[in-house]
Design a protein that fits this description.
The complex is a heterodimer.
Chain A (H helix, E strand, L loop, with lengths): L6 E6 L5 H12 L5 E6 L5 H6 L9 E5 L5 E6 L2 H13 L2 H9 L2 H8 L3 H14 L16 E5 L3 H8 L1 H8 L3 H15 L3 E7 L3 H16 L4 E9 L6 H9 L4 H10 L7 H26 L4 E6 L7 H14 L7
Parallel strand pairs in A: 1-5, 1-6, 2-4, 2-5, 6-7, 7-8
Antiparallel strand pairs in A: 3-4
Chain B lengths: L32 H6 L5 E5 L6 H14 L3 E6 L4 H6 L10 E2 L10 E6 L2 H11 L3 H9 L1 H8 L4 H18 L7 E5 L8 H14 L1 H7 L10 H15 L1 H33 L3 E7 L3 H16 L4 E9 L9 H11 L4 H33 L5 E5 L8 H11 L8
Parallel strand pairs in B: 1-5, 1-6, 2-4, 2-5, 6-7, 7-8
Antiparallel strand pairs in B: 3-4
Helix pairs in contact in B: 2-15, 4-7, 7-8, 7-11, 8-11, 10-11, 12-14, 13-14
The chains are: A alpha/beta, B alpha/beta.
Chain lengths: 330, 408
C-alpha cells in the first residue's frame, strides 16, 4: 500500500452540482507540478461540457491547468472498454476476449448483468490509483498525485462503492475475488474519502445525513460535506427587523424609490421579494443547523449567478483549497 | 385558493388536450393539465426527468389534483422526501397502496399512495410464476439476492413491473383506480426505466443465457468449442463457484422467462398506449433542460405519448419596471442614505439578483422551446419554502394548471 494515491469520491443528490464541485476540487488539488485525474463514471460527458472540450474518449486527456499550475486530466470511464482492457491486462485474453464478445458476454456483463458495470467502473479507478505501486502492465497512463471521482448520486453511493463486497460474496475464490478484496481495501483505507455535495434544502440535506450514516455503517470514510449554491444574505438584520415589524412599508420604500427616479409602484413587489428572501435565508439557516449535527467538516460554496465557466471553476477551486485542503494540496 | 376549474373536460380525441390556452408571454402552447386530468381516457401518467427537479412532488401534486376533481387515483412514488411521505400517510415501505387522508371527496374522487419496495416486488413476481419449491430455491440463490436487493437497474425494472400490476388491478372487472400516476426512479440516466423491459427481454433471449442453461445440447453443440474457451476464461477470471451459482440461478429462473418477457413487453406497449401520458419534468438549469430535451426526443423516437414539459422552480420576472442594472445603480446611490434608504438599497440588491436569475432561466427555457417548438410546456414558479403537506401540493397543482397566484 506504499504511496497510495489519494482518492476523492464526490457524490451528491442530483441537481446539487456534484460534477462542478468534483471539477473544482480537481482544479484545487492540481498544485504546481502535480497531476490530478478526474474521472466520470455515469456516461453523461458532464466533464467535457464543463471544460468545454469535445466528448471524452476512454482515454486520459489533459483538460485544464490547475489552480497551482498543475495539470488536470479527465477520463470518462466506459465499462465496455474497461472490461476488455481489464481482460487484456490481467489475463492476456486476446482470442478468448474476442470470443466473449461474440457470445454477447461483453454486452451481457456491461449492460445487463447487474452490478458488473459498477465493478468495472470502480476497478478502473483502482487501476489508476495503484499505478504508483504496481508495475505497469500495459496501462495507459501516468502516476497521479490525486484522483477525483465524479461518482453516482448520494442515494446510490454506498451501494456503488461496496459493489465489490457483493462480488466478493459471489466469487468465493479466484482472481476476481482477490481483485474485489483489494478494491474494497482501497475504498476503506484512509487514502479514500467520500465528499458529499448538498444544497441547503430539506431533501438534499436529509439525503446527505442518511448518506453519511450509510457510508459510516459500511466503513467508508466520509470527508467533507460541501454545501453548494449557498445564497448570500442581502438584507441586514436591521432591514429584516424593519420589514417584519412593519416600520419599513410601502410608503417608506416608495419614497426612497422616488428619490432615485424609480417607479414607486414597485414598492409592494420589492417588499414581497424581500420577505421571500428572508424566508429562504431562514430555511437555509435551519438546514445548516441540521447539517451541523452531522458532525462533519462543512465547506460552503456560493451560488453563482452566471453559468459555470473556467473562471468560475477557479473561483470555486480557490474556496475549496482554502477551506478544505488547508491552503495546500494534499 | 382558486375555485373549481372552469375548463370542462373535452370529450373525444385525447390529442385535443395539447392545444390548451397558451400562457401569456409564452412562445408555445401550455399543457392543459386540467383537461389532461379530467380526460377519462388518461389512465396512466408517467413523470420523468433527471434527479432533483421535483419529479416526486409533481407526481403527487398531479395525483392529488386529479383525485380532488373526482378521479380514482393511485400514485406510485419511488423515493419521496420524508415529510412529504408522512403527510401522505406513507410511513411504511410495504408495497400496499393506502388511502391518503385529508383529500377532499366532494367530487367523488379518492387518492391512494404507495412507495415502491423493489425487493418485495421482485420476490412477488418469482412467487407468482413458479412452484413454491422452485421459488424458495430462487429466493435463496446468492445471485438472485444480489440482483433483487442491491444492484442498480433493478429499481427501474420493478417500477415498471409494479405499474403493470397496478394497471392490471385497475382494469380488472372491479376497477379500483381509473388513473395511475408514476414517479420514476432517480437513475443514472433518466431513461433507464424505458430500457428496462427491453433489456430484460434481450437478457432472456441472449445467446449467453441460452448457453448457460443448455451448454451442450442441440444446435448449440456447434458452438461448444468456442463456448468451452469462454467457460474456461470465465472460470479463470471468476472462480468455478461463481459459474456454478450463476448456472443454478439461470436454470432456476428459466421457467420464469416466458412470463417475465411477456410482462415486460406488455408494460412496454402499455407505455405506448393512448391512455398513457408522459410528463417530462425539468428545472430551468442547463443540465436539467438538456436531459429533458434528450428525454423528449427519446420518447418521440419510441412513439411514447408525450403530454408535455413541466419546468419547475421558475422565478418569473416580478417587477418589470426596474431592470437589474437600474436597481444596482439606484441601490448604490441609496446605500449612503438614511436607514430607510439603506434598507431600500438592500431590497434593490435582492431584486437585481432575482432579475438576473429570471433572465437566465427564461433564456434556458427559451433555448429548449426553440429546439422543440411543439412540446407543450408549463412553468411552475418556485415557492419560497419546501412542499411537505397536502396544501403545498394543492398550490403546486394550481400552478401546474396555470393558475398562478400572487407573488410569494
Amino acid at each position: 500500500m506504499a504511496n497510495a494515491t489519494p482518492l476523492h469520491v464526490v457524490t451528491g443528490k442530483g441537481g446539487t452540482g456534484k460534477t462542478t464541485v468534483a471539477a473544482a476540487l480537481a482544479t484545487a488539488l492540481a498544485d504546481a507540478g502535480r497531476r490530478v485525474l478526474l474521472c466520470e463514471v455515469e456516461g453523461r460527458q458532464g466533464l467535457a461540457q464543463l471544460f468545454d472540450v469535445p466528448p471524452l474518449p476512454y482515454e486520459e486527456r489533459k483538460v485544464a491547468v490547475g489552480l497551482g499550475g498543475g495539470e488536470v486530466y479527465a477520463l470518462a470511464i466506459d465499462p465496455e472498454a474497461a472490461l476488455l482492457e481489464y481482460l487484456q491486462m490481467y489475463y492476456r485474453l486476446g482470442r478468448a476476449g474476442k470470443a466473449l464478445d461474440r457470445f454477447g458476454i461483453i454486452d451481457f456483463a456491461t449492460t445487463i448483468a447487474p452490478g458488473v458495470r459498477d465493478v468495472l467502473l470502480t476497478g478502473k479507478v483502482y487501476e489508476a490509483a495503484r499505478r504508483g505501486s504496481a508495475t505497469k502492465k500495459g496501462g495507459t497512463g501516468f502516476t497521479y498525485d490525486a484522483i477525483v471521482m465524479d461518482a453516482p448520486p448520494t442515494g446510490r453511493i454506498a451501494r456503488f462503492l461496496n459493489v465489490n463486497e457483493e462480488v466478493a460474496g459471489l466469487a468465493r475464490v479466484g482472481p476476481v475475488r482477490r481483485q474485489a478484496d483489494s478494491i474494497m481495501a482501497m475504498m476503506r483505507s484512509k487514502t479514500t474519502q467520500v465528499h458529499l455535495v448538498t444544497v441547503l434544502e430539506e431533501m438534499p440535506v436529509q439525503e446527505t445525513i442518511d448518506g453519511i450514516a450509510e457510508l459510516r455503517a459500511t466503513n467508508l470514510s466520509v470527508g467533507h460535506v460541501i454545501v453548494n449554491l449557498v445564497q448570500a444574505a442581502l438584507l441586514s438584520d436591521d432591514t429584516r427587523d424593519a420589514i417584519t415589524s412593519g416600520t419599513l412599508g410601502t410608503k417608506q420604500v416608495g419614497a426612497a424609490l422616488t428619490s432615485v427616479a424609480l417607479d414607486a409602484d414597485a414598492a409592494p413587489a420589492l417588499l414581497d421579494q424581500g420577505r421571500a428572501h428572508l424566508e429562504r435565508m431562514a430555511l437555509q439557516d435551519a438546514e445548516r443547523e441540521s447539517l451541523a449535527e452531522s458532525d462533519r467538516r462543512i465547506v460552503e460554496l456560493p451560488y453563482m449567478s452566471d453559468a459555470i465557466d473556467q473562471g468560475a471553476l477557479f473561483e470555486l477551486a480557490g474556496l475549496l483549497r482554502a477551506d478544505m485542503l488547508g491552503g495546500a494540496a494534499s | 385558493m382558486t375555485g373549481k376549474p372552469s375548463t370542462s373536460p373535452k370529450p373525444g380525441r385525447r390529442a385535443s388536450r395539447t392545444t390548451g390556452p397558451a400562457a401569456p408571454g409564452s412562445l408555445h402552447d401550455a399543457i392543459d393539465v386540467d383537461a389532461l386530468l379530467a380526460d377519462r381516457g388518461t389512465e396512466i401518467i408517467v413523470c420523468c426527468g433527471s434527479g432533483g427537479v421535483g419529479k416526486t412532488t409533481t407526481s403527487a401534486a398531479l395525483a392529488l389534483r386529479a383525485a380532488e376533481q373526482g378521479r380514482q387515483v393511485c400514485v406510485l412514488t419511488i423515493d419521496p422526501a420524508r415529510r412529504l411521505a408522512q403527510s401522505m400517510g406513507l410511513t411504511e415501505l410495504d408495497n400496499i397502496p393506502r388511502i391518503v387522508e385529508g383529500v377532499s371527496d366532494t367530487n367523488g374522487g379518492r387518492l391512494d399512495a404507495m412507495m415502491l419496495d423493489m425487493k418485495r416486488t421482485f420476490d412477488e413476481v418469482v412467487e407468482a410464476h413458479s412452484t413454491p419449491e422452485k421459488a424458495e430455491q430462487i429466493l435463496a440463490n446468492p445471485f438472485y439476492q444480489a440482483l433483487s436487493s442491491s444492484f442498480a437497474g433493478t429499481q427501474e425494472y420493478m417500477a415498471m413491473e409494479k405499474l403493470g400490476q397496478l394497471h392490471e388491478e385497475s382494469v380488472e372487472n372491479n376497477p379500483r383506480w381509473d388513473l395511475i400516476v408514476v414517479d420514476t426512479p432517480p437513475s443514472r440516466s433518466a431513461l433507464d426505466f424505458l430500457d428496462a423491459p427491453e433489456r430484460l427481454s434481450s437478457m432472456l433471449d441472449g445467446r449467453f443465457m441460452r448457453l448457460m442453461v443448455a451448454p451442450a445440447r442441440g444446435p448449440a453443440r456447434l458452438l461448444t468449442a468456442g463456448f468451452g474457451l469462454v467457460t474456461n476464461a470465465l472460470n479463470k477470471v471468476l472462480g468455478a463457484q461463481f459459474l456454478t451459482d450463476l448456472q443454478a440461478f439461470v436454470a432456476a429462473l428459466d421457467t420464469l422467462f416466458g412470463g417475465f418477457r411477456q410482462r415486460a413487453e406488455a408494460t412496454y406497449s402499455l407505455l405506448q398506449a393512448d391512455g398513457t401520458a408522459f410528463v417530462v419534468v425539468a428545472a430551468p438549469e442547463i443540465d436539467a433542460m438538456r436531459e429533458a430535451a434528450y428525454f423528449v426526443e427519446r420518447l418521440s423516437a419510441e412513439k411514447m405519448p408525450l403530454a408535455g414539459l413541466v419546468v419547475n422552480r421558475m422565478h418569473p420576472e416580478d417587477i418589470e419596471s426596474i431592470t437589474a442594472a437600474d436597481a444596482e445603480s439606484a441601490g448604490h446611490k441609496l446605500a449612503s442614505g438614511d436607514a430607510e434608504e439603506r434598507a431600500t438599497s438592500e431590497l434593490l440588491a435582492v431584486h437585481a439578483e432575482r432579475a438576473r436569475l429570471s433572465k437566465r432561466e427564461a433564456r434556458v427555457a427559451q433555448r429548449f422551446s426553440a429546439a422543440h417548438p411543439r412540446v407543450p410546456t408549463v412553468a411552475v414558479r418556485a415557492l419560497a419554502g419546501d412542499v411537505h403537506d397536502l396544501d403545498g401540493l394543492r398550490r403546486i397543482g394550481d400552478l401546474l394548471a396555470g393558475r398562478q397566484e400572487a407573488a410569494g
